[in-house]
Amino acid sequence: MLKLMRYLRHYKKEAVLSPLFKLLEASFELLVPLVMAAIIDTGIGTGNRGYIYSRGALLVIMGIVGLCSAVTAQYFASKAAAGFGTELRNDLFRHIMGLSRTETDSIGQSTLVTRMTNDSNQIQNGVNMFFRLVLRSPFIVFGAMVMAYMIDGREGLLFSVVIAVLFVIVFFIMRKSVALYRGVQKKLDGLLRSTSENLEGVRVIRAFRREKAETASYRNAAEDLSEEQILVGKISALMNPLTYIVINLALVAVLQTGAVHVNTGRLTQGEVVALVNYISQILVELLKLAYLIILLSKASACAKRISEIFAVTNSMADGTADASAAEPSVEFKDVGFSYPGAPEESLSSISFKAQPGETVGIIGGTGAGKTTLANLIVRFYDTGRGEILVGGRNIREYTLESLRKTVGIVEQSARLFSGTVRDNLRWGDRSAGDAALMKAAGTAQASEVISGKENALDSGVEQLGRNFSGGQKQRLSIARTLVRRPHILILDDSSSALDFATDAALRRAIRTDCAGSTVFIISQRVTTIKNADHIIVLDDGKMAGYGPHAELVKDCPIYREICLSQLSEKEAAGI
């Protein structure tokens, strides 16, 4: 928790003033029973109405000042906590964005979402309550005990015993509940993971009529979390009855001993009333203190979880060279790669070279390693062995920013972001004008998609592009990448939702408009890659063939089998 306190560096004034104003409010609260005792003993006891009115006015003034102090303290506490939460989330998001896919895949999406939302909110609430109660509650508890000693030593001793018993109760309940809260947070991770998977895969669930099964699974996870929370709630619920029992017994003792001492003249009636008020103050503040401890315990557990994310470092070291000036040639030298935790390599002994201006097709069965190969070129992952060269230099020598500006990739799943069409296309180049955007859209066969909308480039895009079809999203995604004018273009099965005519028009436009760029086309369709200069045939992570279509049909059995599954004998042979 202390490691995250650096996010309060811009709110030092608020962090100091909030507890001080709460301390001021608590001081007035401790004085109220003494003023009341004076009114009872001096004003009411002697019938002095003037004294009663003057002390009554003093109570009103103290109440107003206390209220103003409380409001001011709350303002500073809220400002500091909100600022803390904002800076924490911003830094956490920046850190996550700086991690490679290796780290984010290992951590998991649901875990990252929980850290960004639930955990950061818990810490923010803990900081808010800490500033409000860290000085106030202990000050009133021990202040009430001191006041009791000032009124009468024996009564003060009784107060000391009561406070000690209450602290023991609070300690044992907190010790048990804090451990259980950690379990609650872990089960919350699982529930959020289930929620994310079901919402993202709702179409698949409906297609396979799995609604009832997934609902039952989700209900079990929710009930498991609920049972854990109920157990924690039951233990925490013991706090109120146990503390009330102790306080009520103490109240009985105060009233009994106070009555005797009033009769003997040791105490006045007003002093007994003051002691009763101090007992009530101790009860209220100890409950607040217990709540603060619970909140801080939860915040501490969440802070530890967030610190674990901050402790994860990017395993992908950034280079220093500028890739934008490099020749757009790509060479793989005996490259091998395996995903974290995988027993075998996903790619093994991959070697080839693509010259500038060439188009390289990549084909293979499901799980052959086509997307993995593309991800290695753009350096989403680092190779396990071997090296990848761009312009004759290892891609690890280039800065990630320059490399990813040079290499443009359109992935299998087309993703658009909420905003406008113009906003999405400008992800490729923030300074691109409308002419450049429409030119890229023309190459991507997306001009009709844009012109078909009422507001053209200013047309709205809903979250994840829900108001566009799959083919429209793919064409806009390709246009977005083309706006960047990449020297190396990778199309990872990005035309799968396009009809054959549009796919052919797209390939012709790319060959013309991207002349000089090295283009990689990954596809399951033979017709999409058959005209490429070279074709890489992957089978179970290994290169089963490399060369032009005509050679592979003759010499590569796997490629020939793929061709004949989609084309006739004459079409495969190019006759």
Short description:
By secondary structure, the chain is of the alpha/beta class. It has helices at 12-46, 49-97, 101-107, 109-133, 136-151, 153-200, 202-207, 211-237, 239-264, 269-311, 370-377, 400-406, 421-425, 434-443, 447-451, 470-483, 500-513, 526-529, 549-555, 557-566, 569-573, and strands at residues 330-337, 347-354, 359-364, 385-390, 393-394, 407-410, 419-420, 460-461, 488-492, 518-522, 534-539, 542-547.
Give an account of the 3D structure.
The structure is a single chain. With 575 residues, the chain is α/β, with parallel strands linked by helices. Helices cover 65% and strands 10% of the residues. A six-stranded mixed sheet has the order 6-9-10-3-11-12, sandwiched between helices. A four-stranded antiparallel sheet has the order 2-1-4-5, with helices on one face. Strand 9, helix 17 (500-513) and strand 10 form a beta-alpha-beta unit. Helix 5 (136-151) packs antiparallel against helix 6 and helix 6 (153-200) runs antiparallel to helix 8. The longest helix is centred in the N-terminal third of the chain and has 49 residues, at 49-97. The chain is elongated. The protein starts with 11 loop residues before the first helix and ends with a helix.
The largest sheet is: 6 strands, mixed
Percent helix, as a range, is 55-70%
Put simply, the count of helices is 21
Structural class per helix/strand content? Answer: alpha/beta
Report how far the terminal alpha carbons are from each other.
71 Å
Radius of gyration: 35 Å
